[in-house]
Write a structure and sequence with these properties.
There is one protein chain. The protein is an alpha/beta fold. It folds into 2 domains: 198 residues, 2-enoyl-CoA Hydratase, Chain A, domain 1; 48 residues, Orthogonal Bundle (Lyase 2-enoyl-coa Hydratase, Chain  A, domain 2). It contains 11 helices and 10 strands. The protein has a 6-stranded mixed beta sheet with strand order 1-2-3-5-7-10, with helices on both faces.
């Protein structure tokens, strides 16, 4: 598998930023193939030195409209097949969360069910005015995605979304502080790329450790979480990038980071 030969994912790399576009028409529904290709993409980009930040978005009118229900309707599952599919789905979300590079989710349209889980796995979010996220599983006899939604919304809102199937649009996402901005649709990728390029301008080692630290401390107590951050600060302070940042500050020049 190569980044240039994927069927449902497009990857474009420029100026240390990778734009990853889910492309499974008509609504980027999550199939077995899209799950595996998303996992591969995030793992591959984690190891590339020419990428320091990622923009994740969808082609067309949808970010990701959830699982590919049409392909599963009437499907006869072999022994263990359903569990393997669910494991693949879990890992596709975690591949975004655990990617060593910060991921900006550019929500271009519907992000439903599995799409919401992908959104919630990103580090930073920006929405188009056409964006909508929701948990419609109950309306088609399924369930899932609530735990991911809890990272974005409070208790009552998550339960209402799950039990009613109602969606939250881009403007409301911004009002609630779920996304950094809600912008006109035509400005979404330009804005997201600018955000990614800002992140890419800093030490790749520092941003990788910062993301790792934030992922780790989310479920920790205040004391344990801050102690972990302090240990990461000590480790980062030993790096060449840290010394270069301080030297550049003192010399009033732009730093040159190497990721070491």
């Amino acid at each position: 598998m190569e980044l240039t030969s994927l069927d449902t994912i497009k990857v474009e790399i420029e100026n240390l930023v990778a734009v990853v576009t889910m492309n499974n028409p008509p609504v980027n529904a999550q199939s077995d193939q899209t799950q595996e290709e998303l996992i591969f993409t995030m793992d591959a980009l984690s190891d590339r030195n020419d990428v320091r930040a990622i923009v994740l978005t969808g082609e067309g009118k949808a970010f990701c409209a959830g699982v590919d229900i049409k392909s599963r309707a009437g499907k006869v599952w072999g022994e263990g097949a359903r569990r393997r599919n669910q494991r693949s789905a879990r890992e596709s979300y975690h591949s975004v969360r655990e990617c060593t590079k910060p991921v900006i989710g550019a929500i271009n349209g519907y992000a439903l069910g599995a799409g919401l889980a992908i959104v919630a796995s990103c580090d930073v979010l920006i929405a188009s005015e056409r964006a909508q996220i929701g948990l419609p599983e109950v309306t088609v006899g399924l369930m899932g995605g609530c735990r991911h939604a809890m990272q974005l919304f409070g208790r009552s809102q998550v339960r209402w979304m799950m039990l009613s199937g109602e969606r939250v649009d881009g403007a409301e996402l911004y009002r609630r502080g779920v996304v950094q901005a809600c912008v006109p649709h035509d400005e979404l990728l330009t804005t997201a790329r600018a955000m990614a390029e800002k992140i890419a301008g800093y030490s790749p080692l520092a941003t990788a450790l910062a993301k790792q630290s934030m992922n780790t401390i989310e479920q920790m107590s205040l004391r344990d979480g801050y102690r972990y951050e302090q240990e990461m600060t000590i480790q980062l302070g030993k790096s060449e990038d840290s010394k270069e940042a301080m030297a550049a500050f003192a010399e009033k020049r732009a730093p040159v980071f190497t990721g070491r």
